[in-house]
Write a structure and sequence with these properties.
heterodimer; A: 116 residues; alpha/beta; five-stranded mixed β-sheet; 4 helices; globular; B: 312 residues; 6 helices; 23% helix; elongated
Chain lengths: 116, 312
């Protein structure tokens, strides 16, 4: 099960483990093809070439495998899709809930992963 | 990095109208800059399935937007993303578009800035977005199972979504600023007959508050000018859409709904500035109507631009 985007899809918990351990900077958006999530995927697609030092990916919220994000301690209390996770060297450095603008995403990327 | 440049036509907005204008203009060999605020595709990307776009049986809005963008780029249009609405200065035969530190000029400008969901704009709204405040019942309803929530608004969306949210929530309180609803009678009846739904009329939300998540809202009663806090677990806001035209309100004529008034060539009150899509005064808002209006605007802008290029 994957999302209908042009991003790299994380399909399983082992995919997730591989992607966050093999890439220094990772942004994963866990959501659905809904009005709060789609703008975030679109922002990620827009930024993918500019932020070459960041790996951008998505994961389907309704997949049982997404427990790695849904049950992460950093998402406790989240009450809005998507769950947006930022990882550095395999560790969560920031987690954000609900729709984000390009400005908001860029500000997190710049702060934690550095400007392109 | 500061950028500047001279183009034949500048299109502001990258939704279906802006991208269509970009396709027509660049295919007509006019140098075309599309300044996009946010992500390309506009509101269209939020549509799960578009099944009434002629020639395409079914496609997601996301995919259609992506194809339109690639089409515009393949014909030579330049697409730049900007963070805030630009300033437009009318110099007659040419227009200056100032986007932050960047300055661009063109003979014609097409405004295709669309619309966006209205926010309440009160204290705490940004802070608790995703932590109790939502704008989408389908997306986030399940997080509020067994909770007490408020729905803000009085139109079709608010009433329809309140009923939908009652499947999850313990109680749904509709807070509306007027003493009557604007929704269709069927939606009002369905909400009124739902035992989980309560109503607080003639009341506005003034503030959202909590610690790690939303815990209460400050209600202001417009009738007796009193205020009280209401403890809640969540708030869903459905107060309609607004055209993204405020950045041109001092330059071109808008109607009382802040929509741009255009003539049959899609030209605004300023010669050489055209508009198309959900930001203009019109009755029907569809991807196909936006595309049609943008085609007219692009052809009219192209005709003007060719004339001016011949003159110079």
């Amino acid at each position: 099960m994957t999302l209908d985007t042009n991003l790299t899809h994380v399909e399983t918990a082992s995919d997730w483990q591989k992607i966050i351990s093999e890439n220094e900077n990772v942004m994963i958006t866990c959501g659905r093809m809904g009005p709060m999530c789609i703008p975030v995927y679109a922002v990620m697609e827009e930024l993918e070439s500019e932020y070459a030092h960041v790996k951008f990916a998505d994961m389907l919220f309704d997949s049982p495998e997404s427990h790695v994000i849904r049950n992460a301690p950093e998402t406790r209390g989240f009450m809005g899709l998507p769950f947006v996770m930022y990882y550095k060297n395999g560790k969560v450095v920031k987690a954000v809930s609900s729709i984000q603008t390009e400005e908001q995403v860029k500000s997190v990327l710049d702060e934690y992963f550095g400007k392109p | 990095m500061e950028q500047s440049g001279k183009y034949d036509v500048i299109v502001i907005g990258g939704g279906p109208a802006g991208l269509t204008a970009g396709i027509y203009l660049s295919r007509a060999r006019l140098s075309t800059l599309i300044l996009n605020i946010g992500v390309a595709g506009g509101q269209m990307i939020l549509t799960h399935e578009i099944a009434n776009y002629p020639g395409i049986e079914s496609i997601s809005g996301y995919k259609l937007a992506s194809t339109m963008k690639q089409q515009a780029l393949s014909f030579g249009a330049t697409i730049k993303t900007i963070s805030n609405p630009p300033q437009i200065i009318d110099k007659g035969d040419y227009k200056i578009v100032q986007a932050g530190e960047n300055s661009f000029s063109a003979h014609s400008v097409i405004l295709a800035t669309g619309g966006s969901p209205r926010m309440l704009g009160v204290m705490g709204e940004q802070q608790f977005k995703g932590l109790g405040i939502s704008y989408c019942a389908t997306c986030d309803g399940e997080f509020f199972t067994g909770k007490n929530i408020v729905v803000v608004g009085g139109g079709n969306s608010a009433l329809e979504e309140a009923v939908s949210l009652s499947r999850f929530a313990e109680t749904v309180t509709i807070v509306h600023q007027f003493d009557h609803f604007q929704a269709f009678p069927a939606y009002i009846d369905e909400a009124k007959n739902n035992p989980k739904i309560k109503f607080i009329m003639e009341t506005e939300i003034r503030e959202f508050a909590g610690s790690d998540k939303l815990e209460k809202v400050l209600l202001h009663n417009r009738k007796n000018d009193s205020e009280e806090w209401l403890n809640i677990d969540g708030a869903f806001i459905f107060i309609g859409y607004q055209p993204n035209n405020m950045f041109v309100k001092d330059l071109i004529t808008l109607n009382d709904r802040e929509e741009i008034i255009v003539n049959e060539d899609m030209e605004t009150s300023v010669k050489g500035i055209y508009a198309a899509g959900d930001n203009i005064a019109k009755k029907y808002r569809q991807v196909t109507t936006a595309v049609g209006e943008a085609t007219i605007a692009a052809l009219a802008a192209a005709a003007r631009t060719w004339e001016l290029k011949k003159k110079n």
